[in-house]
Amino acid sequence: MPIRTEHHANHPMKLVILGRDGTLNQYRDDHVKSIDELQPLPGALEAVARLNHAGWHTVMATNQPGIGRGLLDMASLNAIHIRLNQMLAEKGGRLAAAFFCPHTPEEGCDCRKPLPGLVQQIGDRFGVDLSTVHMVGASLGDLQTAHAAGCIPHLVRSERLGALDDAQLAAVAAQVPGTRVHASLSAFAETLIQKDRRVKADARGENMSPATGAGDLT
């Protein structure tokens, strides 16, 4: 369930929207149907914890057509997401909420990514300007969702995209203006945290050397 978080106009919420499959956990063609099939990607949980500790709230947005196809029920999906948050808690992190679309493509809903409905629900729920929200995913569809909703799009390398080389990955990213590409969710987190620190340092009139090794490929 969404968790209430206090924020004020002069201190707007810092929000990151994360895809699930291929971003936080290993992607499966046959869908994650049970807790046993939930396999977090290396470093992904720790990346969420680092973002949280740096003041970023993290929300998950995921298509779950397996529900519409009868491959799993709501109780199973809730159990999977409860377990994911338990794993995050063990690393010191948390998801503020998990938003999902249960529909199949044939149902013609407006919340299935790459349509922006699910992300717009998140914007309404948390009262944030989506143009300030970073959205991270592992597919072209995630990038298209971010663009349609007005978010800042980020792509992480994942087996979901197959064994693409840098040029092929860049070609995918080029389909959505403004996309940043990162080697992993950990690299994204480090890049965002360092950028935030530089902005704060600049505001204080301090000099801060550029971060190195953050993994941003663009």
Kindly describe this structure.
With 218 residues, the protein is α/β, with parallel strands linked by helices. Helix content is 36%, strand content 13%. The longest helix has 19 residues, at 185-203. The termini are far apart.
Features:
single chain, six-stranded parallel sheet, 36% helix, 218 residues, alpha/beta
The helix fraction, in percent, is: 25-40%
What structural category characterises the helix and strand content? alpha/beta
Q: Topology as H/E string?
A: EHEHHEHEHEHEH
- What's the overall geometry? globular
Uncertain parts: 1-9, 211-218
Characterize the biggest β-sheet. Answer: 6 strands, parallel
Strand count: 6
Main β-sheet, spatial strand arrangement: 3-2-1-4-5-6
Distance between the termini: 35 Å
What is the mean pLDDT?
89
Taking Cα atoms only, what radius of gyration do you get, to the nearest Å? 17 Å
**Count of alpha/pi helices:** 7
Our estimate of the beta-strand percent is 5-15%
Q: Could you provide a short overview of the structure?
A:
The chain is built from 7 helices and 6 strands. It has 218 residues and is of the alpha/beta class. Helix 1 packs parallel to helix 7 (185-203).
